[in-house]
Amino acid sequence: MMEDDFYATIKFKCGDEIFTKVAASDEGDRTLLILSNPIVVEEVKIRGKVTGYKFEPWLKTTTEDMFIVDMSDVLTMSESSDVEMIVNYQDFIRKMFKGDGNNTKPSKEMGFISTVSEAKEVLEKIFNNS
Q1: What pLDDT was estimated at residue 101?
Q2: pLDDT at 1
Q3: 47: left (phi over 0), alpha (psi -120 to 50) or beta
Q4: Quick check: pTM over 0.85?
Q5: Which residue range is the domain that position 84 belongs to?
Q6: How far is Cα 2 from Cα 13, in angstroms, rounded to an integer?
Q7: 19: phi > 0 → left, psi -120 to 50 → alpha, else beta; which?
Q8: Is there a contact between 45 and 51 (Cβ–Cβ < 8 Å)?
Q9: What's 112's DSSP letter?
Q10: In a domain, 74, yes or no
Q11: How many structural domains compose the chain?
Q12: Helix (H) or strand (E) holding 124
């Protein structure tokens, strides 16, 4: 029997932590989770303060968007009602599958500070002047 889909953070026994849309299915004596577009969420910190989050696909070498895992591999799972997180997740998935995720130029509103070469130049000047 399939339960309704819900968004959740899942921590696996192996240590992976993902955010995903989940459907649970009881198959006899075990429960399977059907994961839709699972992502890894990393905090982005500047000067020790969390300034945002970085999203990446959970499995980077596949184009699959659905995965089945056994509930016995799960350490804990927390259903999410965090609207901001869900909207950001949906936006990331939409951009990832449109293929235009890499064509968007980062802006200051997105957290863009500078290019690597610009930052390197500034840091070298600071280092050389000290």
Answers
A1: 45
A2: 52
A3: left
A4: no
A5: 6-104
A6: 24
A7: beta
A8: yes
A9: -
A10: yes
A11: 1
A12: helix 116-129
